[in-house]
């Protein structure tokens, strides 16, 4: 009788253990507006592979790309209420939560990609991510979205004066309109899905963006010159739901932090490869890429924009500029 009790107790304990394991298994849903193959999407998939490997399948990530779960704003709202575990968004979307993120939208805040990495990986970037907790978010890391430069159908942009008389499409943000205007051009807000036709019909003479975007949307077909002013380098971030996070064990939180750090490095690697390939393709299709220019006149011309829109971030900007 005692042996039977021991056997039944052992079976019960095994069943309880299996049940507990099953209960702790978690599929982290993550949203992105980009589709398969895009660096941010593939980097999150890589993060999922790491977690899957480290936990023997107990923690995994399912990426919902191509706006399956809505745009960036909608996905962020779902993460805030805990309906979605994770998402990748532009920093502009979290500006209403942590106003200082808007400083990253100012022209020439970062001197180079490496300078941006040094800022975001250091005390400044960490502090901004930590402030997201007040909005129900756990900031996990920053992703590279490349740098934005001018491309147009008329001429290479060697100095700000070369923008004179050119209508340059910008995102619908007063900072970007005045940025182009300060350099002598005519900043013209146009919806991105209307840009190809706007370039084709002369509504605008040019635009500004990164190399992969020019390739993927075939803007090289209606422009011919690309000048690497690199006036904007706006990182993106990926965040986790604090409501979900607070229910997780410290060990799982630590695993996600560790996987996030490796995810950031993977995304940068993927972005660099994608950008290199895009430059090669631009050359192949005959677009004239001008990378030999002095940025100082452009930086000087946009100083009034940083003063006007960045006044309340002046201390933060000084700290950013002090980073080597």
Structure description:
The protein has 324 residues and is of the alpha/beta class. It folds into 2 domains: 24-102 and 113-144 and 236-270, D-Maltodextrin-Binding Protein, domain 2 (3-Layer(aba) Sandwich), CATH 3.40.190.170; 148-233 and 278-322, 3-Layer(aba) Sandwich (D-Maltodextrin-Binding Protein, domain 2). 47% of the residues lie in helices and 18% in strands. It contains 13 helices and 11 strands. The chain has helices at 2-24, 39-54, 72-81, 113-121, 123-131, 174-182, 195-201, 211-216, 242-245, 250-284, 296-301, 303-310, 314-322; strands at 26-31, 59-64, 86-90, 137-143, 148-152, 167-170, 186-189, 206-209, 225-232, 236-241, 288-290. The strands form 3 sheets. A 5-stranded mixed sheet has the order 2-1-3-10-4, with helices on both faces. Helix 2 runs antiparallel to helix 10 (250-284). The radius of gyration is 23 Å and the shape is globular. Residues 1-23 have low confidence and may be disordered.
Describe the secondary structure blueprint for this structure.
Elements: H1 2-24, E1 26-31, H2 39-54, E2 59-64, H3 72-81, E3 86-90, H4 113-121, H5 123-131, E4 137-143, E5 148-152, E6 167-170, H6 174-182, E7 186-189, H7 195-201, E8 206-209, H8 211-216, E9 225-232, E10 236-241, H9 242-245, H10 250-284, E11 288-290, H11 296-301, H12 303-310, H13 314-322
Parallel strand pairs: 1-2, 1-3, 6-7, 9-11
Antiparallel strand pairs: 3-10, 4-10, 5-8, 5-9
Helix pairs in contact: 2-10
């Amino acid at each position: 009788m005692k042996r039977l009790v021991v056997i039944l107790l052992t079976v019960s304990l095994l069943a309880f253990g299996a049940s507990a394991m099953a209960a702790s298994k978690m599929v982290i849903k993550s949203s992105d507006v980009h589709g398969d193959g895009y660096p941010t999407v593939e980097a999150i998939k890589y993060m999922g592979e790491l977690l899957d490997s480290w936990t023997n399948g107990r923690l995994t990530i399912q990426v919902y790309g191509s706006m399956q779960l809505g745009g960036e704003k909608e996905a962020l709202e779902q993460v805030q209420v805990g309906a979605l575990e994770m998402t990748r968004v532009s920093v502009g979307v979290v500006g209403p939560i942590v106003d200082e993120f808007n400083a990253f939208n100012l022209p020439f805040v970062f001197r180079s990609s490496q300078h941006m990495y040094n800022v975001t990986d250091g005390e400044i970037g960490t502090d901004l991510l930590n402030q997201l907790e007040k909005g129900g978010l756990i900031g996990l890391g920053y992703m590279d979205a490349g740098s934005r430069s001018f491309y147009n159908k008329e001429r290479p942009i060697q100095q700000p004066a070369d923008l004179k008389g050119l209508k340059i499409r910008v995102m619908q943000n007063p900072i970007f309109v005045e940025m182009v205007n300060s350099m002598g051009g005519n900043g013209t807000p146009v919806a991105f899905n209307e840009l190809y036709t706007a370039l084709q019909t002369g509504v605008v003479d040019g635009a500004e963006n990164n190399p992969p975007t020019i390739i993927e949307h075939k803007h090289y077909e209606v422009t011919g010159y690309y000048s690497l002013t690199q006036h904007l380098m706006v990182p993106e971030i990926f965040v986790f739901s604090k409501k979900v996070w607070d229910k997780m064990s410290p060990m799982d939180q630590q695993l996600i932090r560790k996987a996030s750090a490796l995810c950031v490095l993977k995304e940068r690697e993927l972005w660099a490869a994608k950008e290199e390939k895009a430059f090669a393709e631009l050359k192949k299709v005959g677009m004239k890429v001008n990378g030999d220019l002095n940025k100082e006149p452009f930086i000087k011309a946009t100083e009034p924009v940083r003063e006007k829109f960045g006044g309340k971030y002046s201390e933060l900007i000084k700290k950013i500029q002090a980073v080597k």
